Amino acid sequence: MEAVETMPENIKRSEWRIKQAIAKIIIDLGGVIFGGFVRDTLLHDYWAKKYYEEATNDGYSTEYQNDHYNNNNVYPETLSRHAIPNDIDCYIEDTVMLAKIETAFLTNKYSFRRIFIRQNASVYIQRLNVPDNTLIHIRYKIYCLDTASKYKLKTIVQEAIPTEFRSATNEIINSLIASMHDVSLQIGHVTLDVLVKKKTEIVLEPPFGNIDFECNALTMSKDGIQLSNQLTIDHGIVKSTARAFKLAQILQDIVEKKAVAAKNTTPMDHYRFCKMKLSGWNIDAQLKTIVEIPPPFYSDIEEKDICIICHDSLEEQHYKLNCCSAKYHKNCLLQSINEGTSAMVTTQCCIVCKRTANNIENEGTMLSYLES
What we know:
About 40% of the residues lie in helices and about 15% in strands. By secondary structure, it is α+β, with helices and mostly antiparallel strands. Strands 3-4-5-2-1-6-7 form a 7-stranded mixed β-sheet. Strands 10-11-12 form a 3-stranded antiparallel β-sheet. A two-stranded parallel sheet has the order 8-9.
């Protein structure tokens, strides 16, 4: 059968392999990768494996499987096999390790540019839960074939042939190298954000408390995939056992492309919420204090519920708190949470029954995000 793979699909494969190769360099030299790269790698690997398993069970050849891998009409239930991390976030212990990583990039033929160096990462990265001047933040752009490499490649090719033959092949060599450079531009660069510890006496662990969704609380290192201790979880049993269960649960959530909001003392940033939602993840806001009530089914003779704030009828989806029976329109509930001297974010109590409203600020923020 004739291959159907197109250039863009070849580029997707190369992009995936390049990012995984860069990650392997970092991990092999002792770095720790965290966040979205780990999540999207796990998502990709699980569904890629499922794709090949199903195609093999149905009797398709290896050639057919590879040629149709990027065809969305083939085994569409495994489309998450196309997931590719956007960038790489990593943590390294010191500048000595950083120098080794940079050398390894060059040894493996990757060129790079430092875009900026922030001596105090806490100023640049929102909600980074570490003391000031503890981490340096360096952003790299890593390339397969930049302009300097392009000219170096031409020199290597020319030196491999007799001087007398160069004028006859010069145009061919220029065209080949230009084509290779064009392909590298289509693949683009890899953005690498590196956090380097400045003070050796401080013990740090990524992702440094800056956790939005539980599926972003995983790390990848020489020790494999692990759950960061920065993730707050309930453990009515032995803590280590609870964390093992939580890790298994998060791995299953990733397979289902489900993003569960992490428990934090401060509300999640809106852009982080939108980033996951726009990427097609199903959001579980973990609303426990706020209870969603579906639209009611009334007959003509039944008395309709009314909102405790505006006193209009509740004919659409509405909400209550788990502490009492008072019901609210969404906007009225958000108003009672955030506005006025008796706002629940101030009192931490229900405005009706005065019982404690646990985590009400975070849950109110998530409710406003869900329907925005």
